[in-house]
Amino acid sequence: MTSLLQFTLDLFSLDFSTPASSPQARRPVRPKRRQVPRKTLPAADLWSTVPAPFLQAAPVREDAPSAPAVSLAQVLTPVSYRHPEATRELMLSGVHVAYAFKRGKRRTIGFSVGAEGLAVSAPKWVPLYEVDKAVQGKGEWILRKLQETRERQGRIDATRVDWRDGAQLPYLGQLLTVELDPGHHFKGAGTQLVGEPGAQRLLLGLPRSATPEQIRDAAQAWLMRQAKPLFEQRLNHFAPQLQVSWSRLSLSSAATRWGSAKSDGSIRLHWRLIHFGQDVIDYVVVHELSHLRVMDHSPRFWDTVATVVPNYDELRGQLKDLPIPSW
Questions:
Q1: Do 126 and 236 reside in the same domain of the chain?
Q2: Contacts of 229 (CB under 8 A, 6+ apart)
């Protein structure tokens, strides 16, 4: 009892204001721990998908494999895709996708990815939950195509022509410059191409006050006048090699096709092929002429194309990937 009372008195007699002056107040000195160097996290780890409250620093073992870095493409992946006529929506790998859905006379569920987004069509007897399940099953492919389409649309938008004096646009794979020349009418044609390839100028007989629409229409009319005779010349060049005969050529402005062919020998080619180089134009010409022998895209069709254009796959890729001006 005496010892307990003495301990209590000693406790209350301590001076807590100056702990360093009293030996009893000093905390025992503990040996310092050996500092283990920590690895610096890569910058990409700052974009971790872990919720913010759990982003706490943790010791990193020297022998532990580092976490894979998040690519910039993953960071910039759009959070959603929405078709302007969307009627259904779901999440695909954390990405919100709203798609246009319609019923049709078909046997299977079909998927189409275009500039507007994802469109899905299904037979009338397929329930909606089966449609969503099918979309989920194709999720990886759909997201890849949506991203590729958006990137391609971005490249197209970046090439949008500013229709004014000095505007530039591709012609047969080379840039030409549009110049207004109000003092000349060029023998009634209203336009004239001057200069060497790579430094060509398209002179338009328009006043300086011409509107962007007038400049665009004048340039388009000239391009279409160049396109048809060039396409005819290439058709005549390749038809004998494929042992086919074509009957009629018309220029197209289709939204999704570069060309088409009918069994009667009539062929349609998009006038804007004139933007591409000669080899790409030749591929499309041969493609449509080959349809006069094989009216589908079977292996036999591609074998036919390859007899004249053996590198057709490379040229087909250029036709898909090379951006053309957005008008």
A1: no
A2: none
